Amino acid sequence: MLKLEQIQKNAAISGLEPGQVVRIVTTEPVGDNALTVYYKTADGTLRERMLFRTDEANLSLAESGRPWAFDAPGDAFKLAAEAYRINLAHLFDPMMAVHTSNVEPLPHQITAVYESMLPRQPLRYVLADDPGAGKTIMAGLFIRELLMRADAKRVLIVAPGSLVEQWQDEMFEKFGLSFTLFSREQVEQSRSGNPFDDFDLLVARVDQLARSEDLQEKLRLTQWDLVVVDEAHKLSANYFGNKVNKTKRFLLGETLGAITRHFLLMTATPHNGKEEDFQLFMSLLDADRFYGKFRDGAHKVDVADLMRRMVKEDMLRFDGTRLFPERRAYTVNYKLSDPEAALYAAVTDYVKTEFARADQLADGGRKGTVGFALTALQRRLASSPEAIYQSIKRRRNKLKRRVEDEKLRQRGQALAETLNGSNGLPEDIWDSADDLPSEDYEALEERLVDQATASQTIPELEAEIIILEGLEEQARQVVHSGQDRKWDELSRLLQDTPEMHDDAGRQRKLIIFTEHRDTLNYLAVKIRGLIGSEEAVVMIHGGVKREERRKVQELFRNDPTARVLIATDAAGEGVNLQNANLMVNYDLPWNPNRLEQRFGRIHRIGQTEVCHLWNMVAAETREGDVFQRLFEKLEVERAALGGRVFDILGEVFEEKSLKDLLIEAIRYGADPEVRARLLKKIEGALDTDHLENIIKRNALCEEVMDEKRLFAVKEEMEKAEARKLQPFFIRAFFNQAFAALGGELRPESKAASRSPTSPPSSASATARSRAGIAAMPIRCCAATSASASRSSTCA
What is the value of pTM for the model shown? Predict the structure, then answer.
């Protein structure tokens, strides 16, 4: 503060003019509390101003000397400048996440992240590349870029329960990002009461969130910079007449979209063949644009700006060669033995009769439940004699116990309410079942096959039990006869197919998919006996806990003695098994999307050999006829379309689903006219023109990687490589900064590197070494200064 009395001629004063120092020419006192000053500004202009006591606080004498002095310590200035340079490195290296991660990204991954996703602000997007294309890598690069550019701090990944640990591992090992797994314990231990506020990087299970209103309410109170949903097709909804039926997962998707700025949905099967369902799915990204459009008559919409899809046939390496090897599918036909054919006819007649009885039920929910149970029974009939025998046996025992319970209750002729109703099951049992996790689906199917019945009175139930007793005995005789033509065909395939054996004659790594656990256990015994080794066969099904499932996968990948993996669809999603190139569909899924998902377990990045798939089909059965025609037509169109038919298989049945066609075949397939109509529908669904129309429709959001574009991407990567922050400068900066702050550097001992407290993965050390900085220096650097903290994030 400068007193009025201290203002003298020629004094340099600051505070009279904003942002500059003026020189006093002369002064004139005006009483005791005012002063008129005449002064010159920096450009020589003469000005006048009256000052009062209240102005004293703003005035000060300017110090003599240069306004900008370069007399700070040179070493400190260099460190500060280097910290800022490192902090801004992403401005000069547009692909910094690539250079600071333990990945070698491919051209389609680079274009996805740096051309399709990063430029969109905010991002509302569906990443729909084929299974096995490395969508997790793309998401990791995108997350790391946002974090380094300070465009994101809070990231939530929502994935199926079987994949959350895999997400956590890959984010740490490949990108050095420590995500926390969400659990119920965190709710109880949270100091704030909301665990979603306690962690900035979080991975959560989709069903854990979808099934809990309490968790969703806590989630609504938070805000995220980015939410990633893996296997996002599970966030489904559908039309029931004019009413939209929203699943719990779809409602979760709406919540997630509302609490985040960037919203990324990842799925290899965004389209299930129903355009109306697809538009509901897309409404998660833009409700105003899509919601209700199909119902209002707008049957087609352009999604090119919200979705990207690349099929395997279009993916290339940087050298221009195809990324994925060829995939070949074969149909293995077999004919049922006479006892098997008689059992098939008897069980099919039972299923057909019970379907007709279910049609008479007034309760729509129960009608759907019984239909679902009968369909599952028919699929087990096609699976193996063991599966149908065990299923009928369990069903008879359960229904017999229910009769006994009812008689004890003495409730007359009407069955108990809990037996008549759908017992809390949704009306849309078919769609809901498809959306369940594999372990829940298997449990639900077991429960319904054992109990759901169209019988409404005790006499009706007793009559059904008598029929089941006959079927059970017939199935038991088939099982003990040892006549199983399907197994005979698989055994011949394992022994006589050249692709099945290596040069030493050993069984190559093989995956066999079945729909039912009874068949899985049956095959395990048979194949172990055939190969002559107990350890040669490993299994994955819905009852195998997640930790054990991961152990089985690692065993199959790395142990040379584990030759055959037998699995249900619990291994159909998110499992990396490209160390094998052989697969058998012992049972065929009724959802065509699952065919591609299964094949995607082996036909994925890292696969170097031609992939072979054998589909087993029983000739002269009703559903077998449908599948036989499907695969015949599929092979013709695969040759015509260069393999691309696999990529759109889930979309070809638009008017009537494959499941509905198969049910119709079971119920009415004895009629030649019905059979001919069904086969004609298969022909129409796989007609070349129809397939080409679907391909053209998908082309609106498909990326095509031609040689010209590939060269441009490669050139951009080379430029980024030249501009990247070199490891030498990172290391030199840290060494100098740490020494200046009094730190001491010592090499890490080998014993310490093997200790439990050392970094848990050699892959993470590799990721850091690519940035030229070790694990310990990063932590110390982050602790020393704000600038260095920011630089460690970049590094």
Answer: 0.71
